[in-house]
Amino acid sequence: MKKIKFLFFLAFFTLFFTGCEDNKDDFPASEKPILTVATTEIYGAPTRKFEIKAALKDDLGLRSVRIQIPELALDKVISFATEPLVTTYDLSYFFEIPADRGTSETFKIKLTVTDVSNNIVDQDINLRLDGEFDAPAIAMITPKEGAVVLLSTSNQMPVHFIVNDNSGIDFVQVKCVALGIDETVQLTGSPQSYTFNKTYALPVTAANYVLTITAKDKFAIPNTGVLNINVVATNEYPAIYLCDQPKGTNLTTDAVGVPMYFHDKNGQDFEFKYYANTNNKEVYFLGQESDFAPHCFGLNASGNLTDDITSAPIILPTKGYYKIKVNPNTLTYTVTKYTPTSKVWADVANGLWHDDEAQRRPFVSICGGGIKDANWDTWNAWAQTGLHLANNPDNPYQLVGEYTLTGTMEGTFTGQWWSPSWRLIKNGIATMSPGDNGNAKYPAAPGVYKVILDTELERAFITKK
Question: What is the Cα–Cα distance from 426 to 436, expressed in whole angstroms?
C-alpha cells in the first residue's frame, strides 16, 4: 500500500512540475518576426573585420538570432530574455575573416530569427572577400600645408595634386568657401589616377585660407578621401625658417625643430642663431615650414641670395655657433660666427635627486604626454632613467637622448621640481622657464626619435631615428 501511495505522489509531482515548466514557455501564437538587413551584399577581405547589421522585430517577443557561415566556422547564437520580452533588437555583429582565405572567395551569411512562438525567418547575405577599403590617396604638389603666397610678388595660387585609387576615381572636388571656389570634376571610365592642375586668383588683401580637397572612388561601397590645406596669403613673410636638410627631404616626418624657426624679427629682417655641427654646413632659408617650395632662398650663380627652388646652399665654413640675418624682400643676408656665453649645464648624466638643495645635482629629463614612460610628475622624470638627457661631448650647450613617441606629444625638459626646466612651446622653441607661453602639442608618428635640447639656441630638435 505504501508503495502505491509513493508512486501516486511521484506521478502527481512530476505532472505538476512539468505543467509549470510548460506554462513558463507557453506563449500564444503570433505573427512571424520581421528581419530587415542593412545590406544583402557585404564586402570583406582576409584579416579584416566586417559588420553584420540588421533590425529585428516581433509583435510578441524575440527568442534568438543565429548567425552562420559554415565555411568560416562561424555559428553564433544570440538569445534574448523573456522577462521582459524583447520585441526589437538592432543587430551589430563583427567578424574577422581568417588570413588564409582568398580574395576571390564568396560565402553566404545565414541569419535565422526565432520568436517566442517558435516562428522562424531566414535571410541570406552575400559575403565577398574582394573588398577595397582604402580612401583615394591625395598627393599635394602645390600648395603644401602652411604654404605662403606672397601677394607682393603674385596673387596667383596654383592648385596641383594627384589622386590615385585602385578601384577607380568617381570625382574630385576643390573647395574654399572664403574664395568662392567650389569645383567638382566628374570622371568617366573609372581612371585609377587623375591629375588636377589649375591656378586661382587671390584677393589682394592678406588673409588665411583653407582649401578642402575631396576625392571619391567608384567601389561598390564608395570610399572618400579628404585633405585640408592651410594657405597664408600675405604681403610680407610672417616667418622664415632655416633648413639644413638636403633638397627633397620630407620636412614633415620629424616631430620638432626641422626646419628651425627664426629667433628675432624686425620688419622683414629675420635673425637666427644656429649651430653648425660640421665644417662646410649647407643651409637654406624657407618661406614655409613644410616644404622647399614655393619659397626657397639660396645662392644664385653670382653668389647672391635668390628665391629659387634651384638655388645653391649657403655654406657655413667651420663648425660652431653663428648669428645669421636674412631679409627675403631685399634678398640680403649676413653670417657672423660667435662664441656663446650662456650657462653650461654640465655633467647632467650624474644628477642626483635630493630634498636638500645643497646636496642636489641637476639632471635633465622630460615631463609630458605622447612620450613613452613620461607623465607630468618630476619624480617620474627622475625615476625613468631612459628619459634622462646626457651632455653632447662635442657641444657643451647641447643635451641629447632618445625618446619613443606614442603620438601627438607635448613636454617640458626638467630637473627636480622644475629646476632647471625648458618649456617646449610652439615652433620648437624651448624657453628657459618661467615663461609666458604654454606647452604646444606636436603631431608625431609613433616611433623612436633622437632628441637634442640646445640650451644656447633655446630650441629643441626631435627627429625620427
Answer: 12
For residues 151 and 287, what is the distance between their CA atoms, to the nearest angstrom? 13
> Could you give the CA distance from residue 418 to residue 170 in angstroms, rounded to a whole number?
55
pLDDT digits (tens, 9 = 90+) for 373-423: 999 999 999 999 999 999 999 999 999 999 999 999 999 999 999 999 999
Residues 420, 428: Cα–Cα separation, whole Å? 18
The sign of the torsion formed by the CA atoms of 394, 399, 405, 408 equals negative
All residues at 6 or more sequence positions from 180 whose CB lies less than 8 Å from its CB, including other chains? none
Dist CA 33 CA 53 (whole Å): 16
Are the CB atoms for 125 and 40 separated by under 8 Å? yes
Q: Which letter does DSSP use for residue 429 in this model?
A: B
SS3 19: helix
Read off the pTM: 0.69
Kindly state the cell numbers that stand for 460.
629643441
Using CA atoms, how far apart are residues 111 and 54, in angstroms rounded to an integer?
Answer: 9
Query: How far, in Å, CA of 109 to CA of 86, rounded?
Result: 24
Choose among 384, 247, 391: nearest CA to 312. 247
70 preceded by a cis bond (ω within 30 of 0): no
DSSP 381: H
